[in-house]
Amino acid sequence: MTTPAEFEAADRLQRRVWGIDTGSTPVPGEVLNAVSHSGGYVAGALADGHLVGISASLVALHADTREVFLWGHMLAAEHRDAGIGHALMLGLRTWCLERRITSARWTFDPLVSRNAYFYLVKLGVDVLAYVPDFYGPLDDGVNLADESDRLLVTWPMDSCHDRERTGYAGNTAYDPGEWRPLLSIDERGRPKVHPRGGDNRMACAVPLDIEAVRRQDPVLARSWRRALRECLSEVLDGGGRIVGFTRCGQYLLTARGTLA
Ligand SMILES: CC(C)(COP(=O)(O)OP(=O)(O)OC[C@H]1O[C@@H](n2cnc3c(N)ncnc32)[C@H](O)[C@@H]1OP(=O)(O)O)[C@@H](O)C(=O)NCCC(=O)NCCS
């Protein structure tokens, strides 16, 4: 996307995806224009001539480390679970590899089960860090002023990816007996944190639709934020890893030194 009309259409799409009536969108048209004209990647997905998805990323030369990588800033699909996001990411990968850019980084909200599955399993990203309140509270139609904790991830685009790279591609690979619960959902939908024993394999559950929980019960949503932050930070800070995510909403984690 390179023209003002295309950026305006991208702005309107963001309003539909994030439920924003007035005020600015996450990445306004003039910022998309700057990203595109500074050599970044701004692309749209069309269905029957209508814009149904957008992807915007900056090409970064890190001033301190001198690494060149893609910083993914925005991905949005108007219709969920129709493969639009995946198509946009495959397009992004091709674009990068043609320019010899081999790694991408971005962040996502670890409470959003769909995004965790999409990035960890469908794309096969590796988790670099858990970052509490990355942007400060975001008051849009999806985040509803919740704290903006994020997982920072990297996508190695020049190796084998997607489901083959990640050992735990879904329900079939998840045997609850093998993964001790560290965080589970109680019968009223509340988070239940379990004491961490000496287990090497642990599972952390998240609600299947945190956006609905935020709308219906913001206090409950905040308790999920705190509980997941506590559990994931503890494992990652101790040298453990996130090795998978199941379609039924469970992070799979291994302790430091455990082979997945
Ligand atoms: C994140 C987003 C871009 C993904 O795009 P998409 O077109 O919906 O993604 P896809 O259809 O390619 O894949 C979604 C996958 O999630 C799975 N999924 C859906 N709901 C899920 C849930 N609650 N838990 C786990 N996985 C889920 C789907 O089954 C699908 O996997 P499959 O193809 O193996 O069946 C899109 O959902 C979106 O725009 N969300 C709102 C904005 C946003 O959060 N952007 C990302 C910011 S980091």
How would you portray this structure in words?
This protein is of the alpha+beta class and about 260 residues long. It folds into 2 domains: about 5-165, Gcn5-related N-acetyltransferase (GNAT) (Aminopeptidase), CATH 3.40.630; about 170-255, no CATH class. The chain is built from 7 helices and 11 strands. The protein has helices spanning about 5-20, 30-35, 85-100, 115-125, 160-165, 210-215, 220-235, and strands at about 40-45, 50-60, 70-75, 105-110, 125-130, 150-155, 180-185, 190-195, 200-205, 240-245, 250-255. A 6-stranded mixed beta sheet has the order 1-2-3-4-6-5, sandwiched between helices. Strands 8-7-9-11-10 form a 5-stranded mixed beta sheet. A hairpin with a 2-residue loop joins β1 and β2. α1 (about 5-20) crosses α2 and α6 (about 210-215) crosses α7 (about 220-235). The mean pLDDT is about 90. Coenzyme A binds near residues 80, 81, 85, 113 and 114.
Summing up helix and strand content along with how strands pair, one would put the structural category as: alpha+beta
Secondary-structure arrangement, i.e. CATH architecture of the largest domain: 3-Layer(aba) Sandwich
Shape: globular
Strand fraction band? 25-35%
Strand order of the largest sheet: 1-2-3-4-6-5
Calculate Rg over CA atoms. 19 Å
Q: In DSSP terms, counting alpha (H) and pi (I) runs of 4 or more, how many helices?
A: 7
Helix amount: 25-40%
In summary, what is this structure?
With 260 residues, the chain is an alpha+beta fold. Helices cover 31% and strands 28% of the residues. It has two domains: 4-165, 3-Layer(aba) Sandwich (Aminopeptidase), CATH 3.40.630.30; 171-254, no CATH class.
